[in-house]
Amino acid sequence: MEEIKVNSLQAKSEQAELSNAQSDETEELTESEQNSAKLEKGIKRREKHLKHYQYFLLYLVILLVIVWVLFFKVIGLTAMPSEDMYPSIHAGDMLLFYRLDKTYKYQNVVVFEKATSESNGQKQLMVGRVIGAPGDTVSIEDGRVFVNGVALLETNIFYTTPERKGYVNYPVTLGADEYFILSDYREEGTDSRYFGPVDKDHIIGSVITVFRRMNI
Length: 216
Prior knowledge:
The protein has a seven-stranded antiparallel β-sheet with strand order 1-2-11-3-4-9-10. A hairpin with a 2-residue loop joins strand 6 (about 145) and strand 7. It has two helices and eleven strands. The longest helix is centred in the N-terminal third of the chain and has 73 residues, at about 1-75. The N and C termini lie far apart (about 115 Å). It is α+β, with helices and mostly antiparallel strands.
């Protein structure tokens, strides 16, 4: 009888030990699963941050491409290089101009490149007002500008227009892609009276608006 009790106690003890071992294994497994879950969350978090950086870089590249296309293909920004357009535009004023319009009309203010004697044959950026378009005949007589035989009424010009003899032979008939461009400051400005008609390929764009320089 005592032997049976002893065996029963041993069996219970073994069952308890087995149960404890299983419990420890379960705890170890649970801890391992928790560590695995934490690791997985960490990986997902890093992947999420990486995606955010990738999206940011993608948006940045797209923005830079848009800015490049906008400012180098569609519009441009430059400073007025001289007082040639005084008093309408002052030296240092910022000019916003449109590049895509390749048909320029009378009174359009345009940005163009032209080589002059003052620049030693090097092209320099200039700004002027279109007076004559392709096919027009331009002449300057007694301080007045004539286009196709008709004297221009220029209410926005406050100076006479000297002919500047010795540079251009008048009348000037413009070719298919040529424009006659004059400065607003007629008495001092450098324009088509010195270097003749401006080819369309040398015109960069037409001025949209002017941002005045602030003398602070």
